Each structure stands twice: as structure tokens, then as C-alpha cells.
């Protein structure tokens, strides 16, 4: 009996060991060493995260942004990257960006994107590093110092196993992602140039978890643009509004906006009139996003202005939406006229076949490491981000960072173990991309 019990125990243990190794079974011996190297870096990575979070780096706190940049720069210097700080013009009032490159002459040219700044300025009441067991709260833990550190951890692990040697990588950590400096043709010029010289772009914004806690990858992000609708009417006595005087600017603005809502909506497209002013004397200050309006109930309003945003999946959708909006605005009620203008802000990260192929590689790496397959996150599920400036030129994937909750809010927090998971997936993906 005793001997049989021991035999059963041995069999059970063997089965358990087999189950544990199943995760690694799809990794080559070199890849298994790489995963072990990532795990060996985890304690240092958490210390690096804590140090970076304890430096306030609100976008407008240029000194703090540069200090976080210097901290990460030392890490990248140690790994043999050529690093430099890219200054922005003084008038832009932004800290600048950290660029680190290495050109080993082999494999895909990969652009790696993160940002140094957070939405929390020095006067923010939100605490810095506040660890509570397996999670941590703090300024930018999730958006996106956790992702920056996961990237650095992956690079350190690749270096440890000698796999960084011949790779062609560019790491760009921007200092103003949360409030990009204007003009963007200047603040994002280096990113665009790097994207044009790359095969793949990966960004380390937080990994969004889908149903059942499954990780997702971001293969598309909607473009943002703004619209301005200006409507004119004839100022006259209110009694004439349904007669010769015409309907006035307010009714006409209402007609146009409701026309947009009823006739222009399609999946993935949204437009939001955010502010409206109407009357006989209106003024709007775009710098302050505020204005004034004067009018009288017995006078037909002669002017309305509306400011809104327009978010779209790709340029074809943008062009379709704008053509319909212009057509609706042109169907003027008697006694009125209207004009609508558009301003592009963030270009779209369209869902392309190249992005989906990159997601498939990433998902395979994750599954092979026993961390589960990765689903595509719908493009409308997250706001605008830096990768959109690179995406028009290169196959792109975002959302490779750590996982947390409440980005931009006082409750922003991070699951600490997710940094290691992100680093393992990233290290394997980079290993496979650069071979
Ligand atoms: Zn971010």
C-alpha cells in the first residue's frame, strides 16, 4: 500500500510538473532563457518603477519630465544605446523627448514608443508611490511609467542573454504625450521621421484587459479632429421669424446639428458639439475654450458658433463624414447661411492588415509563454495616443504595457505583476522580430 501511494504521488507530481512546463514547451531553449532573464530583472524593474513614479512629471513640469528622462536614459546607456535628449523650441513650453537608438544591422527596424509625462502636475493632490500589496496607486503608474519600465525590463533581459547585439531599435520616450506641444508638425517631427525609417512600431500604453481578464492589443486608434460650425441669420423682430425675416441662426444651428446626429452616424464615427454660443453678439476665445453671448428674446439671433470634435477610424470615413456634414450645413433654412471648417489633430491609426499580422505575432508569443492569446481591442475603445503619428508609415501595435485601472484619475493604479507579464511578451516579440 505504502509503495503504491508513493508511486501515485510521484505520478501526480510528474503530471503537475508537466503542466507547469506546458507553458514553456512552445518556447525554444534560447527563448526559455530569455523568459528566465526577464523574471530575474523583476525586482530591479519594480525599484525603477518606484523611483520614476516618485518624480512628478506632469507635462508642464519640464524639470520633472527631464529628470524621469535622465533616469531612463541611464538604463538605456548601460545597454549600449546611443542616447540623446531632443529639445523643443522654448516657445512650445515642453520638456522635449528622450531618444535611444542602436543599429546592429540585422532584423526588423523596430520603433519603441513610451512617454515620460503624466497628467498629474506638481500641485496634484494625487499621491505618488503608494503600494498596497499586489497593486500600487500613484501618479502615472498605469499611464504609463509601468509600460516604460516593462519595455526597459524586456531590453535588459534581451541584453542579459546576448540577444540585443545585432538588433536595430529606436526607443522614443516623449515628454508631452498627455498634452502634445503645438505645432505638432514640430513636436512629433522626430517620431514621424523615425517611423518612416522603421518596419514596426510598438507602443507601451497600458494593456487593456477584455472580458474574463484576457489581454488585448491595440491595432487601431481613432483620429481626432475639430470642427467649427458658423451660422448666420438676419437680425430682425422676433415676430417675423416664420415669415420674411427667416428662421435665424439658432433654429438653423439646431437643424444642422440634429441633421448630423440623424444622418451622419456610422460605426466607429463620433462627433460631439462641445460648446455653442448664439445670439446677436457672440465672442469665442479658443485659448480659453470659453466665450460670451448676448441676445434678446424679441430679436431673431443672427449668429451661432459651435465647436466640436470629430473622431474617425480612417481617412475614408473622415472624408465621407465631412462631405455629409457640409451637405447638411448647405441646406439652409430661409434667411440663413452656414459654413463648417475642420482641423486635423491626431491622424488615425487605421486597422490595417499589417497591424493585424503584428498582433498575431504578439499573440503567438504570449500564448507560447503561457500568458494567453491576445485579442484585438476595438479602435473606439481608447482615446488618442502618440502612436497615431507613427502609424501612417509603419505596421503598428499599441497597448503592450502593464495593466491597471483609473488612468488620469485620482485612483490610478497598477497590478504590479503585470509589469513582468508585459516584459515577457515584449522580450519574446522583440526576439522574434529581430531575428
Ligand atoms: Zn499614456
What would you call the structural class? Answer: alpha+beta
Which quaternary structure do these chains form? single chain
Major beta-sheet overview: 6 strands, mixed
CATH topology of the largest domain: Aminopeptidase
* Number of DSSP strand runs: 18
Q: Give, in spatial order, the strands making up the sheet with the most strands.
A: 1-2-6-3-7-16
The rounded distance between the terminal residues' Cα atoms is: 54 Å
Secondary-structure element series: HHHHEEEEEHEHHEEEHEEEEHEHEHEEEH
Enumerate how many helices there are, as a single number. 12
What gyration radius follows from the Cα positions, in whole Å?
Answer: 26 Å
| Bound small-molecule species | zinc ion
Please indicate the count of domains. Answer: 2
Going by CATH, the architecture of the largest domain would be: 3-Layer(aba) Sandwich
Question: Can you walk me through this structure?
Answer:
The chain has 435 residues and is α+β, with helices and mostly antiparallel strands. The protein has two domains: 281 residues, Zn peptidases (Aminopeptidase), CATH 3.40.630; 124 residues, Alpha-Beta Plaits (2-Layer Sandwich), CATH 3.30.70. 37% of the residues lie in helices and 23% in strands. The N terminus is likely disordered. The chain binds zinc ion. The site of zinc ion has 5 residues, from helix 5.
Amino acid at each position: 500500500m505504502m509503495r503504491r501511494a508513493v508511486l501515485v504521488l510521484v505520478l501526480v507530481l510528474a503530471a503537475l510538473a508537466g503542466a507547469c512546463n506546458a507553458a514553456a514547451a512552445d518556447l525554444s531553449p534560447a527563448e526559455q532563457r530569455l523568459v528566465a532573464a526577464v523574471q530575474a530583472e523583476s525586482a530591479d524593474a519594480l525599484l525603477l518603477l518606484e523611483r520614476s513614479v516618485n518624480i512628478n512629471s506632469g507635462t508642464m513640469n519640464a524639470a520633472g519630465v527631464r529628470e524621469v528622462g535622465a533616469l531612463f536614459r541611464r538604463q538605456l546607456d548601460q545597454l549600449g544605446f546611443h542616447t540623446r535628449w531632443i529639445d523643443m523650441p522654448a516657445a512650445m513650453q515642453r520638456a522635449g523627448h528622450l531618444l535611444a537608438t542602436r543599429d546592429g544591422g540585422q532584423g526588423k527596424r523596430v520603433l519603441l514608443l513610451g512617454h515620460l509625462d503624466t497628467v498629474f502636475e506638481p500641485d496634484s493632490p494625487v499621491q505618488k508611490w503608494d503600494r498596497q500589496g499586489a497593486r500600487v496607486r500613484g501618479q502615472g503608474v498605469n499611464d504609463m511609467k509601468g509600460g516604460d519600465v516593462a519595455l526597459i525590463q524586456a531590453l535588459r533581459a534581451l541584453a542579459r542573454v546576448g540577444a540585443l547585439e545585432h538588433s536595430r531599435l529606436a526607443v522614443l520616450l516623449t515628454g508631452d504625450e498627455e498634452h502634445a506641444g503645438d505645432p505638432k508638425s514640430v513636436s512629433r517631427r522626430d517620431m514621424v521621421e523615425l517611423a518612416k525609417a522603421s518596419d514596426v512600431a510598438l507602443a507601451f500604453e497600458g494593456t487593456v484587459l477584455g472580458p474574463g481578464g484576457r489581454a488585448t492589443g491595440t491595432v487601431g486608434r481613432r483620429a481626432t479632429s475639430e470642427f467649427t460650425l458658423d451660422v448666420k441669420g438676419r437680425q430682425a423682430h422676433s415676430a417675423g421669424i416664420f415669415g420674411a425675416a427667416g428662421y435665424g441662426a439658432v433654429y438653423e444651428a439646431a437643424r444642422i446639428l440634429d441633421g448630423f446626429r440623424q444622418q451622419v452616424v456610422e460605426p466607429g464615427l463620433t462627433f460631439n458639439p462641445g460648446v455653442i454660443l448664439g445670439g446677436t453678439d457672440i465672442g469665442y476665445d479658443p485659448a480659453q475654450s470659453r466665450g460670451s453671448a448676448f441676445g434678446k428674446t424679441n430679436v431673431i439671433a443672427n449668429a451661432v458658433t459651435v465647436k466640436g470634435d470629430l473622431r474617425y477610424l480612417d481617412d475614408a470615413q473622415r472624408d465621407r463624414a465631412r462631405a455629409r456634414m457640409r451637405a447638411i450645413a448647405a441646406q439652409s433654412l430661409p434667411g440663413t447661411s452656414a459654413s463648417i471648417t475642420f482641423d486635423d489633430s491626431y491622424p488615425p491609426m487605421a486597422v490595417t492588415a499589417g497591424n493585424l499580422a503584428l498582433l498575431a505575432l504578439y499573440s503567438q508569443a504570449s500564448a507560447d509563454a503561457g500568458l494567453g492569446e491576445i485579442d484585438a481591442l476595438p479602435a473606439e475603445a481608447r482615446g488618442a495616443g502618440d502612436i497615431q503619428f507613427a502609424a501612417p508609415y509603419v505596421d503598428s501595435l499599441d497597448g503592450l504595457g502593464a495593466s491597471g485601472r483609473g488612468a488620469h484619475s485620482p485612483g490610478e493604479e497598477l497590478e504590479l505583476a503585470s509589469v513582468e507579464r508585459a516584459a515577457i511578451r515584449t522580450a519574446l516579440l522583440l526576439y522574434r522580430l529581430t531575428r
